[in-house]
Amino acid sequence: MLRYLINSLIIASLVLMMAACVAWWRGRTMYEALRFDTGNRWIELGFENGQFRFSRVVVDPFYQAPKMEPGAAALDVSPAKARDLGKPAQWLWIHRAAWAGPPRFQDMTRWKLGVLEYYAKEPSITPGQAQILRRDILIMPIWLVALLFAVPPLCWILRLPTRRRQYRIAHGLCPACGYDQRGNAGSCPECGAARSLSRDH
């Protein structure tokens, strides 16, 4: 059972590592993301310009636009138009061209730890949208994600010689060449390795 779980983890890591490489290639020219929208908040995981981006946005669906002075342009922010709380949670696929303008998130608080970047923003009002209560963005390079997913397969490959030697010893084979030594008490007749390298069963 444990071996099955380990093999499953290795296969999943390989698939995710390849997916990260594909995301790096596609993210050069476009932004693609998977969004889970619950009505008053959404979580989005996307990639763009060689980076993975995890976003969480919480909005106030009951926000009412402030009263404007006569003649001023009113903000089109109404609960009905902003967010529909009656709709069920849904998965959305976002697809658009990659951002090529000036740096974004300039109006957000920024923290940086090595190659990781975190942005946060408190309540704000955007014309035509509901009031944003909270916005969090975590950005990391795709190569870091691919490297993390490559760790389990790499460990498995590095342990191949050790596992092969253990298997041969457990089955009475020469640990050096794999020759069957179950009926031989001396050195391996195939490669000359000493019998002391293996044990009898």
Return the string of H and E elements.
HEEEHEEEEHH
Number of domains: 2
Terminal CA distance: 25 Å
Gyration radius, in Å = 29 Å
- Strand content bin: 25-35%
Low-confidence stretches: 67-83, 197-201
Assign a percent range to the helix content: 25-40%
- Characterize the biggest β-sheet: 7 strands, antiparallel
Class computed from helices, strands and strand pairing: alpha+beta
CA-based shape: elongated
Number of strands: 7
Q: In terms of quaternary structure, what is this?
A: single chain
Query: Helix tally?
Result: 4
Sequence of strands across the biggest β-sheet: 4-1-2-3-7-6-5
Average predicted local confidence, pLDDT: 77
Give a quick set of tags describing it.
201 residues; alpha+beta; 2 domains; 7 strands; elongated
